Amino acid sequence: MLSRRELLAAFLGMPFAAIACRRDPRIELPPGELAGASDQVGHRLRSPIRELPRDWISIDRVIVGAGVAGLAAAWRFAKRDRDALVLELEEVAGGTARSGATQVSKYPWGAHYVVAPLADDQLLIELLREMSIIDSSGEVGEEYLVRDPQERLFYRGRWYEGLYLAAGATNEDLRQFHAFEQEMARWSAWRDGKGRRAFTIPTALASDDAEVLALDRMSMGEWLDAKGWHSPRLRWYVEYACRDDYGALLGDTSAWAGIFYFASRIETPGKRSEPMITFPEGNGRLVAHLARSAKIETGWLVTSLIPNESGVDVVAMSRDGRHLRGIHAKQVIFAAQQFIAPHVIRGFDRDVSDFTYGSWLVANLTLKDRPRTSGFPLAWDNVLYESPALGYVVATHQSDIDYGPTVFTYYYAFCDRDPRVARERLLSANREQWAEVVLSDLSRAHGEIRALTERLDVMRWGHAMIRPHPGFITSAARREAVKPFRNIYFANCDLSGIALFEESLWHGVRAADEVLAM
Amino acid sequence: MNRTPILFLNVLVIAACGLVYELLAGTVASYVIGDSVTQFSLIIGLYLSALGVGAWLSRFLDRDLAARFVEVEIAVALIGGLSAPLLFFGFARLQWFQLFLFLVVFVIGVLVGLELPILMRILKEHLDFKELVSRVLSFDYLGSLFAAVLFPLFLVPRIGLVRTSILFGFLNGCVGLYGTWLLAPLIHRRLMALRIRAIIVMVLLVIAFLQAKTLTSLAEDELFADEIVYATSSPYQRIVVTRGKSGFHLFLNGNLQFASADEYRYHEALVHPALASVSAPAHVLILGGGDGLAMREVLKYPSVKDVTLVDLDRKMTSLSKAFPALAELNQHSFSDPRVHVVNEDAMIWLDRNPTRYDAAIVDFPDPNNFALGKLFTTRFYRLLRAHLTPNAAVSIQCTSPIFARRSYWCIIRTIEAAGFHVRPYQTTVPSFGVWGFALARLQPFEPPKRVVITGLRFLDEGTLASMFVMPLDAAPLPVEINRLDNQVLVRYYEDEWRKWS
Predict the structure, then answer these.
(1) CA A26 vs CA A21, A23, A439, B27, B388: distances in Å
(2) Fold classified for B260-498
């Protein structure tokens, strides 16, 4: 076990750890639980489980994984009046978009917004219409768009509006920032010979023109260098986007992905970025809707998928390891991440080593009251400029509750170059130690956070999000992975190289359509 | 025993304290009740007569004069020292404040009246009568002069009424405590018990002095032109009531909500255009308006069967019900059986409740932060629309079209964007300046021609018609719509008011 001091030094930086440790060590941590993804159960797959069950049933279609992609496939099947069984390892569906609740509010455990869809994203439009979030006139209901004030940034004792630190910026800083914005607007207007956008959601509909794909060969850092944009504030701003969406630093993010983040959200130059749609429980609201039409059995670890002449034999084990069950399926949609495929699919010979995943720590802090702040008031997304973590979102913000108890959802993406190192660090500390890191980090901006926190729950996501490292978007492995393997079809946002709800939705529906076309 | 010079110094302090309590009571009374000539006259008269009562009563004290003297000092320290906070407290809670005031003044007067006769009798052993009377009385008048000069020039403007009162109570306590040493040879029994009592009272006063900060801060005392007669903090805002020559003022977070002298102009203009638009309004909704003044106007309509008032702040609505001065101003409207009060955020309440109303009065503070700004968004007005009967009328306070012209028109355009037909109107409220409102309905309409009820102080047919004429300097400006996801109004408002403050 690490000491408190070592822990803080490792995660928040040495000078800060020194300051934090001077505080009274007798202050007790608020209670809470480690909610974690089931790493221990999942890691049983590291050694192949060859055991076969005695009891077998037959179901035409089986979906492995009740994350957004798996649920999207089930949603599509239900619309086409086809049955499918979804098997999920965790106790609850939703994957990284799942949510929780205290008496104070619902809150997200991971993904917490989608960008209001542009015309290319017909699937999300369809889903949001179904949920009456988009009304008959095609407008997103005002109450679902992130409420103003949306974002603020803490820098040297004071909060500022927005995520770009404009306060104290030099003219050169601002010139570079505006040039960057113009460049993003330019990319939003770019069309190839077939009229496709360079960057769009879903990425499958984006242009494959060489000019665009060339961006994948360099890192976002190299791309900024090539433009001569060295302003620390601009680079912080762009890197924050990379850390937030990809769990990677500028040098480890494909420039294609870096630009995608900004350009895909702009309809045409001159228009602002499309607004974000959110809910107190984050994307948990969308998951709950998708799950309504699905038949899900949770607590089952799929140990083997054995393709044969008539389809696929599915073997699943209960979480406690005591029960095995077998399903003869005609087709299987594998809606888990690619790195798991070699451990589960018999005879799977594809190389998945190019698929790498970032590690995330998410903490939910139930507060008895809001901390007092100086400068710009509490927003939905609250970011600390000098912190290695991503800051927090306020769960009650979208419920219009402006006073009293609330829940802060704190995000920390580990951006180590080697994701395995990050994963080890994440799993090396327990709930109490992570709570200490979270509180110490937040106390940079909120000195009273310990006294206000009544509960602090922690989630450790070992394989949270696919990382679009340079070259990954255009890699042969990624293109190959989308293709079915015998009667097994693949659906997961890692196939896009971009961890977005919309990408999961796309791949889930695409895989379902492929099955339906058989 | 050559302690007499110090005893004369005590006389000086006692005299100063005595006069300060009298001045304090007079000042508090004239602040909270007004009519300073009457208040001062009554209090001086009562106080002087109480001094006489005290002097007369001193004849019944025979034994242990020194101990009695210390006891009287401790009592004066406690009651005199806490007199100003007690009076403010009583004013905020008691129906019969005047009686309470007289009681406090009388008790202090009697105690102060006891002081000098006892002291003179203690000193008479050491001085001949001529000398005694001359010295005691001259120090007495000197002390009074001292207090009379210090009170208006330093004490009230610099440390405020509450702290002045506590400070002088403390001085009385010092005299008492010091007396236990000075007069020790004359105190035969229970010297220690006297000291402990004096110390307890002085500690109490120190605590009160420090707590006075939480009642009103020094900075706050300087912020308001008039004396603060009541101040409290709720989870949502700072509520301050001041009293000046012209009457009461209510401030929320330092922003004036109304002045009792001219609030009738504001509230008649706010309420009657909407209620006069609807024939026999029965069910009325008031959003905000926790002062109960808009409700007072609404309750004037005999057709009104029920009024629902939704105001976030329970402290505000409770104050309006229980604070006698406010309750009188709103004509005890919170005690009307037709009234139903809900302490919730209006936006959340609208979202959760389905009831429809014949008229709605929207009286929120100006949109100077995002939590208030949301109550001026298309989302909010759409929610409101769903709570109206087809013929309903709504009036909305929309800040000043002169000081914050862009903000005003932003609110108007936002109400329109939510599907209302809107008639902007304005009037002049001396405390605020030119103030703007909106009359909104679900169908195209003309503003009402007359108010159907009588007994108004401001609105008549001509005034009503003139309000709907917007002057040139308040004419429309191009603005964005205020949406929940893009609160332009808060930004407009901040920009515009910055120029005036």
Answers:
(1) 11, 9, 14, 51, 57
(2) Rossmann fold (3.40.50)
Can you spell out the DSSP letters for B59-93?
A: GG--S-HHHHHHHHHHHHHHHHHTHHHHHHHHHHH
Whether A400 and B374 lie within 8 Å, measured CB to CB: yes
The answer on pLDDT for B365 being more than 90 is yes
Contact A402 B485 (CB under 8 A): no
Q: What is the mean pLDDT of residues B132-156?
A: 87
Question: What integer pLDDT is reported at residue B210 of this predicted model?
Answer: 84
Q: In chain A, what residues touch B419 (CB-CB under 8 Å)?
A: none
Residues 6+ apart with CB under 8 A from A433: A1, A2, A4, A7
Alpha carbon distance A319, A331 (integer Å)? 24
Q: What tokens were used for B170?
A: 């403390």
Give residue B501's pLDDT. 65
One-letter amino acid of B41: S
Mean pLDDT, residues B209-221: 63
ipTM for the assembly: 0.87
Chain A CB contacts of B348 under 8 Å are 399-401
Name the β-bridge partners of A488. A332, A485
Query: pLDDT tens for residues B56-66?
Result: 999 998 888 88
Q: Which of A288, A305, A370 is nearest to A62 (CA)?
A: A305
Looking at residue A356, what DSSP letter applies?
-
**What is the b/e burial string over B214-241, where b = at least 16 CB atoms within 10 angstroms of the residue's CB?**
ebbeeebbeebebbbbbbbebebbbbbb
Q: Which residues of A touch B373 (CB under 8 A)?
A: 148
| B229-249 residue pLDDT tens | 888 888 888 888 888 778 889
Distance CA A240, CA A226 (A): 19
Residue B479's SS3 state is: coil
Bridge partners for B421 per DSSP? B441
Go through the domains of chain A in sequence order and give each one's CATH number. Answer: 4-30+357-466 (3.90.660), 44-97+283-355+469-517 (3.50.50.60), 170-274 (1.10.405)
Q: Retrieve residue A346's tokens.
A: 């018999």
Report mean pLDDT in 10-residue bins for chain A, 518 residues.
59 56 63 82 80 92 97 97 95 93 94 95 97 94 96 96 95 98 97 96 96 97 98 98 96 98 94 94 97 94 95 94 94 97 95 94 96 94 96 96 95 93 92 95 95 96 94 96 97 97 98 95
Domain positions in chain B are 4-207, 260-498
Are the Cβ atoms of A404 and B379 closer than 8 angstroms?
Answer: no
Other C-beta atoms lying within 10 Å of the C-beta of residue A115: 18
B253, two tokens: 């977070």
- Cβ–Cβ < 8 Å for B76, B13: no
* Banded model confidence at residue B350, pLDDT cuts 50, 70, 90: very high
A403 neighbourhood in chain B, CB within 8 Å: 235-236, 312, 345, 371
Q: Which of B311, B358, B363, B366 is catalytic?
A: B363
B4-207: CATH topology: Growth Hormone; Chain: A; (1.20.1250)
Mutate to test the interface with B, among A115, A139, A369, A400 (most CBs of B within 10 A): A400
Q: Cα separation of A229 and A225, whole Å?
A: 6
CA B431 to chain centre: 16
Q: Which residue of A has its CA nearest to B352?
A: A399
Helix (H) or strand (E) holding B396: strand B388-397
Minimum CA–CA partner of A272 in chain B: B486
Write out the residues of chain B at the interface with chain A, using a CB-CB cutoff of 8 A: 235-236, 312, 345, 347-348, 351, 369-371, 373-374, 377-379, 382, 483-487, 490
> Which residues contact residue B125 at a Cβ distance below 8 angstroms, ignoring those fewer than 6 apart?
none
* pLDDT higher than threshold 80 for residue B137: yes
| C-alpha to C-alpha distance for A180 and A224, rounded to whole angstroms | 9
